[in-house]
Specification:
single chain, 230 residues, mainly beta, 6-stranded mixed barrel, 4-stranded antiparallel beta sheet
Length: 230
């Protein structure tokens, strides 16, 4: 990981005595997602799967330097909704934690068609009820490099000297998109504001994460999530 760069408005400020951020160690789920192939696609077919207690999902094979999700080969599967809900309860960082997956020939079949490690990329929920609508996962074997959206967790606001002086915290992004080896994907990145003063900022991988402004910033639009077909 590149070191965080803290800079003032005109020139680079001194590095704080402790790092301004730290990467939380990679982790692996102990469970294995069970899936079966599905043939039908579209809204009606997906609704039928959900009515039967299942979650329509896609498996994506990412490759190449740009890892274009839309152009990557995909296969359609369906997973057990109850199992996915249980895994989500166990891990708040579901989409940055690799997990084992088995694709069986049928719901009651012992025949395993495919087996390996996947990284959940996106999980869609119904806004009103929280019901899981669909799931997108990418094959993620060790040694492979994947572009991952890692959540940023801000800490130390109560100690931040810039805020104590009346400054305003402008959070530019809530996650950092970067390429990691599968075995090195961090669950989250903690950003420490405890030593940030007015006019200083934190930059990770040449991307502005946050800054302390003397006046209240205007509201910025949230970064959009990609839409993946189920």
């Amino acid at each position: 990981m590149a070191m965080a760069r803290i800079a003032g408005s005109a020139h680079s400020a001194a590095f704080p005595p402790s790092p301004a951020w730290r990467r939380i160690a990679a982790a692996w789920h102990h469970r294995t997602i069970q899936a079966v192939p599905r043939e039908a696609s579209g809204g009606r077919a997906a609704a039928k799967e959900r009515a039967q207690g299942r979650v329509p999902a896609i498996l994506i094979s990412l490759s190449g330097p740009d890892q274009d999700v839309k152009r990557a080969p995909k296969q359609m599967v369906t997973t057990d909704a109850k199992q996915i809900r249980e895994i989500l309860k166990e891990s708040p960082y579901f989409c940055t934690t690799p997990i084992k997956l088995q694709v069986r020939a049928g719901l009651r079949s012992e025949t395993v068609l495919q087996s390996g490690t996947v990284l959940p990329l996106r999980i869609s929920r119904k806004e009103e009820t929280g019901e899981i609508l669909n799931l997108a996962m990418a094959w993620a074997e060790k040694g492979k490099e994947l572009k991952v959206k890692v959540p940023l967790v801000f800490k130390g606001e109560d100690l931040c000297p810039g805020l104590k002086k009346g400054g305003h915290l402008r959070k530019v992004r809530s996650f950092l998109t970067h390429k990691f080896l599968v075995e090195e994907i961090p669950q989250k990145i903690e950003v420490d504001l405890a030593k940030l003063d007015i006019g200083e900022r934190i930059v990770l991988h040449e991307k502005l994460v946050c800054e302390i402004l003397a006046s209240k910033p205007s509201e910025s639009k949230p970064e959009p999530n990609p839409v993946l077909e189920s």
